[in-house]
Specification:
492 residues; mainly beta; Immunoglobulin-like; 4-stranded antiparallel sheet
């Protein structure tokens, strides 16, 4: 065990009488009891279920089957759920977005909705079956709280009645999958391949276009909630690469991940921060990312997950940050500094995917997802994972990490239900006092007292993706064995 992890473990043991002596693992260490049988090709997105099973999306080869499938399901120990059917009952390939008790999933050039079990929801049509719309070049999508969908890319509309004909880049759909004829769809001279809603309802966009609605744009631009361009938002970026993910901080500054070049520089930047008006934030550290496993490729930061107000986990196709080994996953603070004592092994391992026409090297982590039991899952295209404490060469595409329930003595207060961060635009973390039972019901109520979500917490910690909720003030209740605590949580 390296020195930094030893010091953290000592700190945990010193405070153990105040909290819990049964959890020796430090946060984010590998759980070697969980492993999958996936040998090819990659996992693009996952959705953990409360029962411990996991829905996968990507290009996935199930053992004993030479064909790849867009989605699959894992049992709690990581083995395949052989009862989960392939297409046409199931579909996938792209990002999964939870919505109420269902979810949406990117599928080829379009979007589908799934029922609570992960199968295709027949109440949401295939978009190409509706009038006026034909999918062409896929992009990204956003789900509104009422189930409506905004989709990007470059797609064909043939709505002559309302005057929307030709290629469009931002297109709205109803919560049944039909083209929303009440909206003004937007176009550009290229493809919008990534969008992200900000807390105020505006959208950050990136793509291959140089003009949008006839106006010049940079590789990252911003539009109002109705798709109207914000012309004053002009980040100092070259027309190169693009953004893969964003995180808007409480003060309006925006962390941008991807592969970007600042004006006047040839250096590829994977992580920058913009001021609310789009200018570069000079107070944010510009780290040097390296990708060494395939010389023809550049490093890319793919996702960001806020853990606290001052800690973020980033993932991607990088091997080193500022010379430090970080195989696809790292932690930074709110100023961009690399946190040296987390994910300090060599990370994920490379493997060759061989087909008759040649081979491709995969070695990246495409994301990290919190699970209902307080743990986390990393996923991507890799064989083997080394977190600095455990080097498990048998890990494949999805790995389980211990959660953040260790070494936080303030959670021991029997009168406090911690909810954080608050406000938040995406994730809600709940930490129960250790006087509560290991299985506790968490209920989330809106400002009118209506129940809008209900979850089961295991081992005192739970994390949920609540991006589909409308902004506002919510009440979080914890109940178990006759005990009751509540707290307030603000959704941006």
């Amino acid at each position: 065990m390296n020195k930094s992890r030893t010091l953290r473990l000592v700190a945990v043991l010193i405070t153990a009488p105040l909290i819990n002596t049964t959890c020796p693992q430090t946060p984010f260490d590998l759980d070697p009891t969980f492993r999958t049988q996936i040998d090819a090709r990659y996992v693009a997105s996952i959705l953990p279920f409360p029962d411990g099973s996991i829905l996968l999306s990507g290009q996935i080869r199930v053992p004993g089957n030479t064909n790849e499938r867009g989605s699959a399901k894992l049992l709690p120990n990581g083995s395949f759920d052989l009862s989960f059917p392939p297409f046409p009952l199931a579909t996938g390939g792209g990002r999964i977005t939870p919505w109420n008790d269902r979810s949406y999933i990117g599928s080829s050039q379009t979007v589908r909705r799934l029922d609570p079990s992960g199968l295709i929801d027949p109440e949401f049509i295939q978009l190409n079956l509706g009038r006026y719309f034909t999918s062409l070049q896929g992009g990204d999508y956003h789900v509104y709280p009422d189930g409506r969908v905004l989709m990007s890319g470059a797609h064909m509309l043939s709505d002559s009645i309302r005057g929307f004909e030709g290629l469009y880049s931002l297109i709205w759909f109803s919560n049944e999958g039909y083209l929303d004829t009440t909206r003004t769809h937007r176009r550009g001279n290229g493809v919008i391949y990534a969008i992200a809603e900000q807390p105020d309802g505006r959208f950050l966009c990136t793509g291959t276009m140089t003009t949008y609605e006839g106006q010049p744009v940079k590789s990252v631009f911003r539009v109002e909630a109705d798709g109207v361009l914000e012309p004053g938002f002009q980040p100092p970026l070259q027309f190169y690469g693009g953004a893969w993910a964003y995180h808007t901080m409480q003060d309006g500054r925006i962390i941008v991940l991807g592969a970007l070049k600042l004006e006047g520089s040839d250096v590829v930047r994977c992580l920058i921060r913009l001021l609310p008006n789009g200018d570069l934030d000079p107070s944010f550290v510009l780290n040097d990312f390296e990708q060494t496993f395939s010389p023809s490729r550049i490093p890319i930061a793919l996702t960001i997950l806020p853990i606290t107000e001052d800690r973020y986990i980033i993932t991607g196709t990088f091997d080193k940050i500022n010379g430090e080994d970080r195989g696809g996953i790292a932690m930074i603070d709110s100023s961009g500094n690399l946190v040296l004592d987390e994910f300090d092994g060599i990370g994920c391992g490379a493997y060759e995917y061989v087909v008759p026409s040649g081979s491709t090297t995969y070695k990246y982590i495409s994301g990290i997802a919190p699970a209902p039991d307080g743990s986390y899952y990393i996923y991507g295209g890799y064989h083997g994972y080394d977190d600095g404490t455990t080097n498990d060469t048998t890990q494949r595409m999805v790995s389980k990490l211990y959660g953040i329930s260790v070494g936080v003595p303030e959670w021991a207060d029997p009168t406090v239900l911690r909810v954080f961060p608050s406000p938040s635009s995406a994730f809600l973390n709940v930490a129960l006092p250790y006087s509560f039972p290991k299985e506790t019901v968490i209920t989330i109520l809106d400002h009118l007292g209506r129940q809008i979500a209900r979850h089961l917490v295991f081992d005192q910690v739970g994390t949920w993706d609540l991006r589909s909720l409308a902004p506002g003030c919510y009440s979080v209740h914890a109940s178990g064995d006759g005990k009751l605590l509540f707290s307030k949580w603000i959704k941006q």
